[in-house]
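WARN no homologs supplied; continuing
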Amino acid sequence: MVAIQHSGDRRASARCFIVESGGRAPAVGQNIPFRISPMLATLQEAPFHKANWVYEEKYDGVRILAYKEGRQVTLISRNAVNRTSSYPEIATAVATLSVNTILLDGEVVVFDAGNVSRFKLLQQGLGERQYAVFDCLYANGRDLREETLSERRKYLEKYVKPSRHILLSKRLDINGLKAFQLSKRRGLEGLVAKNNLSKYATGRSSQWIKVKINQEQEFVIGGFTKPGGSRHYFGALLLGWYRQQKLEYAGKVGTGFNEKSLETLYVKLNKLIQTESPFAEDIGEKDAVFVSPMLVAQISFTEWTKEGKLRHPVYLGLRDDKAASQVGSK
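OK structure emitted
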């Protein structure tokens, strides 16, 4: 039997564990001696093929580092927020792995009927959540960050057996161009290409490359328009992204909402209303209501217009695993 213990602090320093029912802390030698930020892929527009690279399915979910120390598990998001209590079924699944200590890197996802991960399903609490694991950074007292990706994958496959709530990241074709075409046919968000000889390095890296198929990106909410007709709460969200510390206007999104999401989002926006526009330029919206640029929205769209605005954008949900200041250029 396992139980979850909570603390009030949501940051990574908080202790939120899966432990034996007696509530004991990890024994000596069961601690992972470091906490890290995840390795991040660099966006590239065109697919490619290179020797000694592997090509994995790109997941559309929430990035999570899972620390298992004895029977104690802590789940940490990419912005260092403790998410153990947010995904208790994932924490329990990691706790049952037959390894004393392990640090995993992966994505919490929900798959649709076509076995494609969808952030909107995860954000709306629809479907069964799973932890798609793609890296192993520490196992049974051994720091693996200086090992190659191919070596770390061996440890991952040795200690992590697929179960109801845990799966290993799916490798695509060994040829990067064929892998991209396969991803496109399946309707995936994209793929992630990784240098099989690379070490694990915190932060953005050219050794991991993401190539997107469907246009989907995070944007900062800088305001909203007033509702019209039978619409309640607000009409559209005003979106932006940061370039050289200035919030550039990217257009507005008025689709992808239902009555519940309109109300929930309006309550959050109403607390952030301010008189001055957060955007670097005049956006030309006479009835705009501006807000402090604190909230990050996930948006899908078909393309960028020549004026630098989004074409056919659709709101997918809010992201709380990425700070607004980190939302960079397209």
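Residues 1-26 have pLDDT under 50 and may be disordered.
OK
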